C-alpha cells in the first residue's frame, strides 16, 4: 500500500504541475464542443430529427476522456521505461498491478472531472444540452471506457520509445476512430458500411453508452449492450497490455 500511495501521489503532483497537459486534457475537448456547437447550432439531424447537440456532446465527451486515458498512461509508461524508472521499481517489491493501479485511479479521477466540466458547459443555454434523468448510468459506462482505453495506452507506451512515437501512434488510433465511431459526426447520417465498421471499434460503444445515459435517447438495454461491448474490449486490451508490458527497452 505504501508503494501504491507513493506512486499515486507522485502521479498526481506531476500531472497538476504540467500546465500543457492540463490544458489539452480539459480545455481541448471543450474547444471541439464550442466549434461544433457554433457550426450546428439550432440544427437537427435529418435522419432522426434530434438536435445535433445530442450527438456531438456525448461523442466529444467520450472521445476526450478516451484520448486522455490513452495519452496519459502512454507517455508515462514510455518515459519511465526510457529513464530506467521502471527498472528501478522492478528491483523493489512493487508488483506490476500496483504500478498500473496507481495510474488507473488517477485516470478515473481525471475522467470524472473531465466529464463533469464538459456536461456543465454543454448545459449552457447556447448549447442547450438537457441531461435526462438516466444520467447517473453514464458513470459505469465512463469507468469501463477509461479502463479499456487505459489498457490501449499501456500497449502504446510499451512499444513506443519516444514521445513523438507515442503521439504518432495514439493519434493514428484515436483520430480516425473518433470519426468512424460517431464522436464528431452522427452515425445516423453516415453510409451503412461506415456504421458497420464502427461496430468493431471500442469508441463506438463508449459513445453509445454515454449518449443513451445522458440524453435518454436509449433505454437500459442500450446501455447494457454498450457496457458489454466496452467490457469485452477492456478484457482483450488488458490481456494484451499485461502480455506486452516491458520494464526496459532491453526486455
Largest sheet: none
The succession of helices and strands, N to C, reads HHHHHHHHHH
What structural category do the secondary elements indicate?
mainly alpha
- The number of distinct β-strands equals 0
- Terminal-residue CA separation: 27 Å
- Helix share bin: over 70%
The overall average pLDDT, rounded, is: 87
Which percent band covers the strand fraction? under 5%
Count of alpha/pi helices: 10
Nearest-angstrom radius of gyration? 18 Å
Shape: elongated
- pLDDT under 50 segments (min length 5)? none
Oligomeric composition of the shown chains: single chain
Can you describe this structure in just a few lines?
The protein is mainly α.
Describe what you observe in this structure:
The model has no long low-confidence stretch (mean pLDDT 87). The chain has helices spanning 2-17, 19-39, 53-82, 85-90, 96-122, 138-159, 163-180, 192-198, 202-215, 220-244. It is mainly alpha-helical. The chain is elongated. The chain has ten helices and no strands.
Keywords:
elongated; mainly alpha
Topology at a glance:
Elements: H1 2-17, H2 19-39, H3 53-82, H4 85-90, H5 96-122, H6 138-159, H7 163-180, H8 192-198, H9 202-215, H10 220-244
Helix pairs in contact: 1-5, 2-3, 2-5, 3-5, 3-6, 3-7, 3-9, 5-6, 6-9, 6-10, 9-10
